[in-house]
Amino acid sequence: MDDATLSSPVKSRRRLEHSHSSGLQLELLSPIATSDDPLDLSEPLPGSHHSRNQKPIPSSARKIASGKKEFLSKQWRKWQRRIPFLKKIQETVLRVPPKLRTAFVVFWFGWKIALILILLFMTLQQPSSSMELSYSNNIRPSQFHNNMHSNATRVLYIVTSLAEYNNGRRKTVKGSDRFLHQLLPVMIDSVESMVSHNLQVDVVLICAYPLRPERETMIRYRLPRDVGLQIWDDALPLSYHPQNKTTGSLRANTRALARQHRFVVKDKLEYYDMFVAFEDDMLIRGHQVQHYWHMSQEIERLRIMAPESIKDGLGDNVDDYKHTKFFGTMSKSQLERVVPGFMRVEVLVNDTERTAKTKIQFPADWDFGDYGTRHIDPSICCHFHMEPPPLQDDTFPEAPGVDDLIIWETNIKAFSLRQFPTGSSPLLEWSVLMMGPGKKLPDHAKIGGYWSGRGGSFGDEKRPSGGEPKLVAQQGGWMATKEQLVRMNGQLCLAEFLPPFDRIAGGNDGLDPHNVEFWSGSYQFFTGAGNHCNMQRIISINPDHFSKHLLYHTANNKQKQLGQWRMLRADQLFGQLNSVKKMAEKAKVEIETSNSNKS
Fold first, then answer.
1. Rounded to an integer, what distance in angstroms lies between the CA atom of residue 140 and that of residue 272?
2. pLDDT tens digits, 349-397
3. pLDDT above 70 covers what percent of the chain?
4. pTM of the model
5. Is the alpha carbon torsion for 191, 192, 193, 195 positive or negative?
6. Residue (of 393, 396, 406, 368) closest to 559 by Cα position
7. Where is this region: Disordered (predicted)?
8. Cβ 285 vs Cβ 179: under 8 Å
9. What's the Cα-to-Cα distance from 269 to each of 289, 363, 480, rounded to whole Å?
10. Which of 341, 270, 271, 266 is nearest to 299 (CA)?
11. Using CB atoms within 10 A of its CB, is residue 393 exposed (0-12), middle (13-18) or buried (19+)?
């Protein structure tokens, strides 16, 4: 074979001889390029899948790819030497058929993707407490809510729960699930009602007991989408044992659990417009929260317009209740203590065995002039479905009637009527003054009213003191706007309403000797003493709004604990208050006529 043949760019045979036992010789055809006419790898081979328009792959890129592959291979061998079982794993995997390996990889990635999608779906469905309520100093709750609620009133709803299961006291069924049958339905219904009234709501639940994860899930699942939730469980504070103070022994202070909501309010004060703090058996409806807000705005409008002091010589001498002023101009110092108030009611479960039998005789009048004959509206507070706990005989009417609502914490002797200054809205024109303020209240801040017994309805009986327990009308909680809380805590209360409780009588950071009612039942808020605030609660006598001042105590157990003589039908009280209003209107005409004749 000549040199020309060897140098031609054609396929030549290269014989490879193998030292195989069969002596079989294999021939391998391979392309050989001469140095004079090298094979150009940058051009696509004939019949290849590359199109003419595609850019050729540079040889440098192939070298880089080959280098990366070699590097990774070296790294893998390096790890195999360090971790011997990696080689065994590789060998085991390579023994698996390729199709099975592919199926396993596809399944593994598919399972991961499905899990991520499920977690994302659950996160979007349920609000995160860490995002909704754990705010930094420059983040406000409105950033976590839909833009459609940007103008809504921001409300923080705080619920305090002492027991997960009832202990059998106070006419409850021992061992019944209070969380499932009481707290959960009441809290969810309250929140849903508030949201339906265009209120932007977040919830804080304070529990004396550890809350199990599955129970937290129940709450989150049932809360509306845009409602944030934060839980403070196992929240009982510790205090020194009152009988062993010298030894320094500690105890879990169940009474002071009602104090804990004040820390939450202090922490969240700048982020909300209004705070609603109640016990776990109090049903709070959007009608009532919205009414409190609107009524407070009207009171604030009157306060801004009011004079600093009144110099007409007709001071509100409330101690002389037979002659005290009950209409006319009010000063700023009077109006700054006025807040809307509430009364607790229960639904009468058994009218035959436990009917209302109050001994007080007082006329009731349901004729409201231009409004016609009116009665209370139970649907606002008390139309509510709640399954009774097992083993409980009584069933709660879901739609109680006018005569089914009863009051046990007050009666007509506790109330006075006041006509607010000219220019007041129908919300305030004539309002009921509730009991409470008294001790250590400055004279210029006292507010007089026409007491129900002023005309001799109760003989020579004197007007009760402000803090009478059977007449003060505990609320089971309170509502307040941010502005009201700031004013109370900074100037009106005789001791701190919000922590730190440095001036609370008894010391021990406010843990002793105060009871539940001091913190949550309105005693500090509405009555007068060394630690109290002397805020004056009012109720609108307007028949369109009176029922919004009634709060449903869903436990319905007070009617079983107390004597029937304490029970008063709410509609009866409504008619009696209207009678007092008419007495006050008549007395006002007589006073104005007398003053006119004197002048």
1. 9
2. 876 666 777 888 999 999 999 999 999 999 999 999 887 766 566 677 8
3. 77
4. 0.75
5. positive
6. 406
7. 1-22, 35-63
8. no
9. 17, 45, 11
10. 341
11. exposed
